[in-house]
UniProtKB/TrEMBL annotation, chain A:
Residues 102-305 form the ABC transmembrane type-1 domain. Keywords: Cell membrane, Membrane, Transmembrane, Transmembrane helix, Transport. This is ABC transporter permease. GO terms for biological process: transmembrane transport. InterPro entries: MetI-like (IPR000515), MetI-like_sf (IPR035906). It comes from the Archaea. It comes from Halorubrum halodurans.
From TrEMBL, chain B:
InterPro entries: AAA+_ATPase, ABC_SmlMolc_Importer, ABC_transporter-like_ATP-bd, ABC_transporter-like_CS, Mo/tungstate-bd_C_term_dom, P-loop_NTPase, Transp-assoc_OB_typ2. It is a peripheral membrane protein. The complex is composed of two ATP-binding proteins (WtpC), two transmembrane proteins (WtpB) and a solute-binding protein (WtpA). This is Molybdate/tungstate import ATP-binding protein WtpC. One of its GO terms (molecular function) is ATP hydrolysis activity. The keyword Cell membrane does not apply. It is found in: Cell membrane. It catalyses: tungstate(in) + ATP + H2O = tungstate(out) + ADP + phosphate + H(+). Residues 4-234 form the ABC transporter domain. Keywords: ATP-binding, Molybdenum, Nucleotide-binding, Transport. Its main location: membrane. Part of the ABC transporter complex WtpABC involved in molybdate/tungstate import. Responsible for energy coupling to the transport system.
Length: 320, 375
């Protein structure tokens, strides 16, 4: 029985009766698989490429090439294929209106990131340290992701609008209506709600890995709760914190749906301006130029923040 | 006045009584170990002294001040953790200086005291390294230095040596004793390892099932164990089942199988009465082994010895001594620790020990009665 499978696909043609045929068939398959394995074994670079290739291919095709296309278009006048020019950049960087929008976007992003980081850290901390129902609580945190972003924003419109859910509740308990829709507060609430899970997950991951003995050791050595947090808990989880901050800050900076639906016309953010250039003004080169500038600004800010954060906490407790 | 006074200490986790009405004292400058098997509640006692657990009931006084209810960072004790809990994001020197920094010691003095402590634990020049670059033994020293540098009234140890190999552990035991004397600090050490406890401690607190079994010096515990459990736990012991047949002023008559032996009255720990079922315990090093003669295998009340014949079943060399496992005809398996290594497996031998060397423990109800004689 083992004989055919030893020989290289020679068994396939040998048999008249059914049994050897099936044996021969499987032997042929075995033979091919081991040929491929042997082929790859001798070519380690090809093997690596066969694993790493597809994801890199996707990245190049859907990310690097479009980015490059955007860069090229941003140097063209008026429309795709227009004359080469620096005008788009000059227009954008010399316009007070646009720079005000960028500044506002930056401020809102910083505020959102700070709120989400604080709330998210407290949430992750309580899930890890004060509860046994960790899985259930994490599931509840992720649950909103199962509903469409747009639908959730419309839900917030319902809650925040004048005489909406929030105002009705306030009326019931005898408080004046606030009518938060189309205010900056509404934008902050919406962002906080949407990005919270993104921050909680990395915070949670880093906090689970934190050895509880280190916290006890710190308290044993005379550090109260706040000092223990600042000199042990936070530095030990700083990588998760930076990850969470990055995950919140970037999408907030480029966001256009939330500010449009909840912020109205008083809270224009740069993402809305870019979207407008592409979808209404049909000035793709100008939109591309703004996009490039914003990308550079965000990447620079993040590099700064990571460097700063790493230096502040990574070097250890002697700094405080 | 004791440095540490523990009275009626009790800790319940739900229905489980982890620590049950524990009393003990630690005097200034002592090295006391709490010894017990895993699950005996010894670590819980330590954690209550440190302030990580709140007692359900009882008092803990440090320097005559009640500390129950005050948080760990307000207690004048420092702990060496089982897995050491060195801060991985700080250097060795920063780890050691952590406590000083929390209590507001200026940087100059901090550096000086950290430096002195590194010398004390023989890690000069290691200050700028990360704890991860150090060996297990070196990390132990850092953890010890981190606790000692604050000059606490009491240093607590939660089995920190258990992860080390035997040789290093023995070395660290010596180091602990040296450092304890040099710094004149009081140590309270928790362990399940009787070897460590016997080696380092001035006094031992033996804990089982949340209750104190015995408190005393190493010699007291070894020579006059208060219970069968302590006898078993501190060193090895052979136990032979017997029954009390006579009690008078100076002696107790025991029926051990098919013979009767008279032992001194003070061999019995606690009260015994006629008809009580008892365990007669003897240390392996007190058992004599001889080649089997013709008629030596009779327990003889007159000459005050226990004797039996048996077959050698196992033998292990332990340096100068050999430990024999002997299957006796009368009392099942016994172990004997003797100098001579002249017996082979399957040899027939006679074993004997003096009545003066035994301890007699009354069997409580039938709880332990199903244990067999040998141990």
């Amino acid at each position: 029985m083992t004989e055919p499978s030893r020989s290289d696909d020679g068994g396939a043609g040998s048999g008249g009766d059914p049994e050897p045929v099936t044996d021969g068939g499987s032997a042929a398959v075995d033979g091919r698989v081991s040929d491929l394995t042997a082929f790859l074994r001798e070519r380690p670079r090809l093997r690596t490429l066969s694993i790493a290739g597809p994801p890199y291919g996707i990245l190049v095709f859907f990310f690097a090439i479009p980015l490059l296309a955007m860069l090229v278009v941003s140097f063209q006048a008026d429309q795709i294929g227009g004359a080469w020019t620096l005008g788009n950049y000059v227009d954008f960087l010399t316009s007070d209106t646009y720079l005000t929008v960028v500044w506002r976007t930056f401020l809102i992003s910083v505020q959102v990131t700070a709120i989400v980081a604080a709330v998210g850290y407290a949430l992750a901390y309580s899930i890890v340290r004060f509860s046994r129902r960790t899985t259930l609580l994490l599931l509840l945190v992720i649950l909103p992701f199962w509903t469409s972003y747009i639908i959730r924003m419309y839900a917030w419109i319902n809650i925040l609008q004048s005489d909406g859910v929030l105002d009705s509740i306030l009326n019931l308990v005898g408080l004046p209506a606030v009518g938060l829709l189309y205010t900056k507060t509404a934008v902050l609430i919406g962002f906080t709600y949407v990005w919270l899970p993104l921050a909680v997950l990395p915070f949670y991951a880093s906090l689970t890995n934190l050895d509880g003995d280190l916290i006890e050791a710190s308290k044993d050595l005379g550090a109260g709760p706040i000092r223990t947090f600042l000199s042990v808990t936070l530095p030990m989880t700083i990588n998760g914190v930076i990850t969470g901050i990055v995950l919140v800050f970037i999408p907030t900076f480029g966001s256009f749906i939330t500010p449009r639906l909840l912020g109205g016309t008083n809270n224009v953010m740069i993402g809305m301006v870019i979207e407008n250039q592409f979808k209404s003004a049909f000035n793709w080169p100008f939109g591309a130029a703004i996009g490039m500038v914003i990308s550079v600004v965000v990447v620079a800010l993040l590099l700064l923040a990571t460097r700063f954060g790493g230096g502040l906490f990574g070097a250890g407790g002697e700094t405080s | 006045m004791s440095l540490l006074r523990v009275r009626g200490l009790t800790k319940e986790f739900g229905d489980l009584v982890a620590v049950d009405d524990v009393d003990f004292d630690v005097e200034d400058g002592e090295f006391v170990s709490i010894l017990g098997p895993s699950g005996s509640g010894k670590s819980t006692v330590l954690r209550m002294v440190a302030g990580f657990e709140e007692p359900t009931d009882g008092e803990i006084a440090l320097d005559d001040v009640e500390v129950v209810g005050s948080p760990p960072f307000e207690r004048d004790v420092n702990m060496v953790f089982q897995d050491l809990a060195l801060f991985p994001h700080l250097t060795v020197a920063e780890n050691i200086g952590y406590g000083l920094k929390q209590s507001g010691v200026p940087a100059d003095e901090r550096r000086e005291r950290t430096e002195r402590m590194l010398e004390m634990v023989r890690l000069e020049g290691y200050g700028d390294r990360s704890p991860a670059e150090l060996s297990g033994g070196e990390q132990q020293r850092v953890a010890l230095a981190r606790a000692l540098v604050n000059e606490p009234a009491l240093v607590l140890f939660d089995e920190p040596l258990s992860s080390l190999d035997r040789k290093l552990r023995q070395h660290m035991q010596g180091e602990l004793q040296r450092i304890q004397v040099e710094t004149d600090t009081t140590f309270l050490y928790v362990t399940h390892d009787q070897e460590v406890a016997l080696a380092v401690s001035d006094r031992l607190v033996v804990l089982d099932d949340g209750e104190i079994q015995q408190v005393g010096t190493v010699e007291e515990l070894y020579e006059t164990p208060a219970s069968r459990f302590v006898a078993d736990f501190i060193g090895d012991v052979n136990a032979v089942e017997g029954r009390v047949v006579a009690v008078d002023d100076g002696t107790i008559g025991l029926d051990v199988g098919d013979g009767e032996v008279t032992v001194p009255r003070d061999a019995a720990v606690g009260d015994v009465a006629v008809d009580d079922a008892v365990d007669v315990c003897v240390r392996p090093f007190q058992v004599r082994v001889e080649p089997a003669g013709d008629d030596r295998d009779v327990a003889n009340a007159a000459d005050g010895t226990f004797s039996a014949t048996g077959v050698v079943r196992s033998r292990s060399y332990q340096g100068s001594d050999s430990q024999y496992g002997i299957e006796t005809d009368r009392w099942g398996r016994l172990s004997a620790e003797i100098r001579s290594a002249s017996f082979e497996i399957d040899d027939r031998v006679a074993v004997a020990w003096d009545a003066a060397d035994v301890h007699v423990y009354r069997r409580d109800g039938d709880g332990s009665a199903d244990d067999d004689g040998g141990s």
